[in-house]
Amino acid sequence: MPFTVLPAPYPGIITGNTNICVGAVTTLSDNVSGGTWTSFASTIATVSATGLVTGLTSGADVISYTVSNSCGSNSATIAINIDPLPDIAAITGATVVSIGGTTDLYDAISGGSWSSSNTSVATVNGAGIVSGISTGSAMITYTMINGFGCTDDTSILITVVASTGINNINVNNGYKLSPNPATNEITITWQNQTAQTAEVVITDMVGREVLRKTINLTRSTGNSLLSLSAIQDGTYIVTITSPDGCYTGKLVIIQQ
């Protein structure tokens, strides 16, 4: 009795992008319909029934496309690489600035770019200095891109309040306090300092001390964040004393 030998199923050829970033997606396709998609390393990447690949962690994976008939199954495969995201840190710095004033934002990972979601409220330059333009809120974003072309970003909400006519404290190119007015915290920035420590004293307008803190000047230029959460609304005098000199200025606190 004659019989027919059927060939094994042809799995076709997989096409699509073989390099994606962690958290990104790409769609693979095959020129033969009716098959099933599978990820070899599902902790690195997953693939849906329609060939949609999602990168989970950095590494290499193999995606297979399997077709079947009465003679069995056959698979086509494609290797993909999931590239890592760039390192990025949380943004630090004061989050309230007055119209016409500035506040300095920082990210521990250098090399990124700054942007503002609403430049009519606040702008930010390449050094992370935010300028208050009008009252309202703006999201300031710091974006990093690495050699793989993968990007990651982090954001912080900046509130711009009406100006009190008092600018950020700048004295003899030594110290700067920003923002001013401030809410629950203020950034003390120093430059060209040779001392190891400085004493920060905040007093009210009748001379009563409301806060005292020693800051470590671990390098000649740097910054330190000072909490103001225990201080009530009002106008205060800030005095910074170190072997390099004594610096004094006014500070307005507006708790939200």
Structural description of this entry:
The chain is mainly beta and 256 residues long. It has three domains: 14-83, Immunoglobulin-like (Sandwich), CATH 2.60.40; 85-163, Immunoglobulin-like (Sandwich); 165-256, Immunoglobulin-like. The chain contains no helices and 24 strands. A hairpin with a 4-residue loop joins strand 20 (197-204) and strand 21 (209-216). It starts with 13 loop residues before the first strand and ends with a strand.
Number of helices: 0
What Rg is obtained from the alpha carbons, in whole angstroms? 29 Å
- Supply the helix-strand structural class: mainly beta
Going by CATH, the homologous superfamily of the largest domain would be: Macroglobulin (MG2) domain
Mean pLDDT, all residues: 86
Distance between the termini: 92 Å
Reading off the top of the CATH hierarchy, the class of the largest domain is best stated as Mainly Beta
- Counting structural domains, the number is 3
Q: Give, in order, the helices and strands.
A: EEEEEEEEEEEEEEEEEEEEEEEE
Would you tell me which CATH topology of the largest domain applies?
Answer: Immunoglobulin-like
Report the uncertain regions: none
Q: Topology, please?
A:
Elements: E1 14-15, E2 19-21, E3 25-27, E4 29-30, E5 36-39, E6 45-47, E7 52-55, E8 59-69, E9 72-83, E10 96-98, E11 102-104, E12 113-116, E13 122-124, E14 129-132, E15 136-145, E16 151-161, E17 169-171, E18 175-178, E19 185-190, E20 197-204, E21 209-216, E22 222-227, E23 234-242, E24 245-253
Parallel strand pairs: 2-9, 10-16
Antiparallel strand pairs: 1-4, 3-7, 5-8, 6-7, 8-9, 11-14, 12-15, 13-14, 15-16, 17-18, 18-19, 19-22, 20-21, 20-23, 23-24
